[in-house]
């Protein structure tokens, strides 16, 4: 890929059109000196030093097309493509300028802009074979770039589809797992509820039995109390009731009998003692 440049160097000089010599003659001595020094560095591939000298020349004469064009070339050689394009855009768009702009866009892989620049160069010089070659190359790279974008888009869509399918499968697996866990938990809850129900039924049966035993004991106790009451009532009903006078009469009779009995016993004791006493022997 060539880079056209305005080079002004004695016997080894490379000039582009007579415009170069004409433009060079319009620059003053300081500008010409700075451009020559910049060209020396440029041919030695010391592009950064050449850039500085070309900028110094432009400071001396901002309208110098030679200094500006060669500045753009030095920037291009340092891969400063945006700055190079900006510098070229300030020049009249002749064949060389458009060609170099196309090369800068080609390096930036902005193939559509490169194609436009090469077409502009060919309008100025339709026989420029290098411009034609670069134009064909830029078109091929543009087609390849568009195909790559299409393939990337298809791959991205496929990746998105695969990712979505995986997410759907993961979601389904999670749902199945959740359903299984819920079912297991439900079965466990049902079993626990059944166990609780069985225990409650057992407790109820036990309470019923305890209540029955308590009732039986109460009935038995009530029956005993009733029998006792009946016995007491029967005994009370079997004996005739007496009045107070009758009771006192009986009591007096008993006391009289006891008194008679005591007197009889006392009398018998006296008589017995008398019989047992020895007779006096006078």
Question: Brief description of this entry?
Answer:
82% of the residues lie in helices and 0% in strands. It is mostly helical. Among the domains are: 17-91, Tetratricopeptide repeat domain (Serine Threonine Protein Phosphatase 5, Tetratricopeptide repeat, Alpha Horseshoe), CATH 1.25.40; 126-217.
Give your account of this protein's structure:
This protein has 282 residues and is an all-alpha fold. Among the domains are: 17-91, Serine Threonine Protein Phosphatase 5, Tetratricopeptide repeat (Alpha Horseshoe), CATH 1.25.40.10; 126-217. It has helices spanning 17-26, 29-43, 47-60, 65-77, 81-88, 95-107, 111-124, 129-238, 244-276. The protein starts with 16 loop residues before the first helix and ends in a 6-residue tail after the last helix.
Number of strands: 0
Strand content: under 5%
Average of per-residue pLDDT values? 81
Listing every helix as H and every strand as E from the N terminus to the C terminus, the arrangement reads HHHHHHHHH
Rg is 70 Å
Low-confidence stretches: 5-22
Structural class: mainly alpha
Secondary-structure blueprint:
Layout: H1 17-26, H2 29-43, H3 47-60, H4 65-77, H5 81-88, H6 95-107, H7 111-124, H8 129-238, H9 244-276
Helix pairs in contact: 2-3, 2-4, 3-4, 4-5, 5-6, 6-7, 7-8
Question: Which features does this protein show?
Answer:
282 residues; mainly alpha; 82% helix
